[in-house]
């Protein structure tokens, strides 16, 4: 795509975020004339749809998918346009493709759920709306409301308003149960206080949506910050519907910090087999293999994914980690050099212009700031990783140059408005570097600076105590440990 066409696409996307759909459509038509590619065609389809031109939307979406079947934005646009034009099989097939390639997408599950509702499939609609909530691995409502455009939330409110009529006309107990599940889950999308209230707890379902009722009750626990405590409910849902990717993903993410839990490894293995093209699944699967020490399997899987997507920042990171653990530093350095050459790893971080159409401008600005912060974090970690690898190869001079670059990026991170981390990660990593080489004075100097910058971190005080112990400064080490205990007792452990 030419620079001019790319600029038109960016302008069109910005106008869509401002809800200026007619203006966006004109701009995107110019972009399509200059470059009839899937991205502008898919966005143009969405504009036509919002402007009430469903026939044109379907034509553009079909062209976008014909240009690239793997483009999920194009498949999503096709699903929406086909639903609008009452092409049931085509719509559901498009959403199925989106979910096959990304079973972690709340938006795809929500859109498929609304398509099922449109075609009178209430049980399937209820199941997919619950899945759209389940796949979120952090604050359900906050993340869902960020990933779904405002118009989608309004769509949920419209369906909720129609539910009383559908309930009066419900054909049998199963349809009534489906509408009850829809009412609770759609209300949660409308209002973030409703998922944790008694609505989910009171829900009683005996038919095929029993798993959904259990999942909603688990989400009520999760919204209170106790998802791990309520995990038996999610286990119940998985047992009742073991082939459901959304449930397996939710449980794997809940157990993310417990790599040895067989449920987590089993869920990720299931997802990796079923969704070979799913990037998020691939990342978590390889990461879990590394955490469990299954390095040969991790290397084999990592190489398969890198064949599919050679410039995947996280997979290249994983390759470097695998090679480090296998004791192959020369090969590891080649990977770090490749990562540094590619710079920011844009394929793996949020780009400023990637905010979804329809997101409010203040959310758009926040996404842009978070995206820039992630890019800086990524760049800093590239130089830190390569510095440590150079050290293992005995090249301290080159290692110090990379640490210096990492320090510069760390200062940029501290100055960024969106930054919430108070730990000087770059200096802490260099302290570990010095300690591993028994250069304790240099390690202590770096830890002194880390503690000065973030005196509220108990872990930093403990780490400095370890260095002082190694230097035979028993009195200083004990003083640092007392401070660490005091911070933990008072619940003031910051920056962790």
What would you say this structure looks like, in words?
By secondary structure, this protein is an all-alpha fold. Among the domains are: 1-101, Serine Threonine Protein Phosphatase 5, Tetratricopeptide repeat; 114-241, no CATH class; 422-496, Tetratricopeptide repeat domain (Serine Threonine Protein Phosphatase 5, Tetratricopeptide repeat), CATH 1.25.40. It contains 26 helices and no strands. It has helices at 3-17, 21-34, 38-50, 54-67, 72-84, 88-101, 106-118, 122-134, 140-147, 150-168, 173-190, 198-202, 210-223, 231-240, 245-254, 262-274, 279-291, 295-308, 313-325, 329-342, 361-392, 396-415, 425-436, 440-453, 458-470, 474-489. Helix 17 packs parallel to helix 19 and helix 18 (295-308) runs antiparallel to helix 19. The longest helix has 32 residues, at 361-392.
Compact summary:
It contains 26 helices and no strands.
Topology:
Elements: H1 3-17, H2 21-34, H3 38-50, H4 54-67, H5 72-84, H6 88-101, H7 106-118, H8 122-134, H9 140-147, H10 150-168, H11 173-190, H12 198-202, H13 210-223, H14 231-240, H15 245-254, H16 262-274, H17 279-291, H18 295-308, H19 313-325, H20 329-342, H21 361-392, H22 396-415, H23 425-436, H24 440-453, H25 458-470, H26 474-489
Helix pairs in contact: 1-2, 1-3, 2-3, 3-4, 3-5, 4-5, 5-6, 5-7, 6-7, 7-8, 8-11, 8-13, 10-11, 13-14, 14-15, 15-16, 16-17, 17-18, 17-19, 18-19, 19-20, 20-21, 21-22, 21-23, 22-23, 23-24, 24-25, 25-26
